[in-house]
Amino acid sequence: MEMEAVERLLEWATAEGVILDGIKPQHLPGRGIGIVATRRLRADERILTVPTTLLRSLETTPLHIFAALTNASVHAILAASMCLETSAEFDIWCAVLPSREEFAANLPICWPPSLQALLPSAAQAILAQQRAKSDRDWSAVSAAFPDIERDDFLYAWNIVNSRTFYHTTPETKGLPRDDHMVLQPVADLFNHGADGCLVSFDDEEYVFTTSQEHEAGDELFIRYGAHSNDFLLVEYGFALAANQWDEARLDEYVCPLLSESQKQALEDRDYWGKYTLDAESVCYRTMTALRLLCLDRKRWLAVLAGTRDEDLDKDVVDAKLLDVLNNFEANIARHIAMVDAATDGTQDMRDILRARWVQMKDMVVTAASSLHV
C-alpha cells in the first residue's frame, strides 16, 4: 500500500513537471521511504528537478489564510494551510507523509511528559524552544481558525517542522531565516546523511545534484544540517549511529564548580558556558574553564595570553576533567536505569531514549580513557 501511494505521487508529480533521472523512492525496511539510485550515477549529475510551481510556500498560500495570519510565522501559516487544504492533489502528496502514529512514536514533542523529562539536558532545551514556538503558532492559528483541531494542527506543524526546505524569493528575503521555508513533493522523501546531494534553487526550479558517485541500489541523502543527535532527535525523530557533528553538553557538570568571580572572569573573555564533548575530545572552552579551577588567576591569564605553556598544567587539569566525566557517566547510568524502569509511552519511545543515553556514555568513556591520570 505504501509503494502504491508513492507510485500515485510520482504519476502526479511527473505530470506536473518533476523530473527524476536515475533515482526512485523505495521502501527501506525499518527506515520508511528513501531515495535510491536506479543506475550508476556520476558525481555532479542532476538527479531531481522540482519546478517552483509545485512548492507550497508563503506565496502559494490562499489569500484568506494569509490575510488571517499576517502576524504569524511562515511555519504557522503553512501548517494552517495544510489543515484547511481539501484538494485531491494534496491528498496524493499527504499519502506518503509520515503518519501521526510515526510522529507520536519518534518525536519527543509527542511523548508523555515523564519521558520528555528523561531526555538529556541539551535535548530538553531544544524541546522547550520547540514547544514554545508550537504554542505561539497554535495561539495565532486557533484565534484565526477556531474550527481547526489542536491535534490536527500539531500534526501539520510537525510535517512543516521536519520536511521543509530552505528557500527565498525577493518577497521573502527580508523575513527571519526561520521563515525561509517551503514544502515540496518527492524531494521530501530524501533521508538525512552527512554526505548528501547538493541542493540549489532559482526562480524556476529546485535542483538536486549528486556530490559523489553512486552504484545502483545505493541510497542517496541530503544533509539537513551539521546537527547533534540531540537536535536530530527532537526536530526529526531520529539519532544517527555515526554522526560527526554529535556532541554532549557539559555545562551542568562544569558550571556549578565555578565561583561567581570565576564565572565573571570567564564571561569577560567569552568563555562562560557552551561546554561540549564530542566523539574525539572535550572542547577548548571546557578546558579553559577547568584550568581556571586548577590555577591561580595570574597563571590562568598567562595561558590565555600564550605566555605560559598549557601543557605545564595538563595533569592537574586532566584530573579535574576526569572528575567531571565520572560525574557525567554516573548521571548517564542513573538515566538509563530510569528509562529501563519507565512504563509510560511505548517501547519504541523508550528504546530511542535509551539509545541516546548510550551514545553519550560512549563519548564519555572514550574521552575518559584518553586521559592519563
TrEMBL record:
User: Mind telling me which Pfam families this protein's record contains?
Assistant: SET (PF00856)
| PROSITE patterns in the record | SET
Q: Which residues form the SET domain?
A: 16-225
Extract the Gene3D superfamilies matched here: set domain protein methyltransferase, domain 1
Which SUPFAM superfamilies does this one have? SET domain
Gene Ontology MF, one: protein-lysine N-methyltransferase activity
Q: Which InterPro entries match?
A: SET_dom, SET_dom_sf, SETD3_SETD6_MTase
Question: Which sequence ranges are marked TM in the entry?
Answer: none
Quote the protein name from its UniProt record. SET domain-containing protein
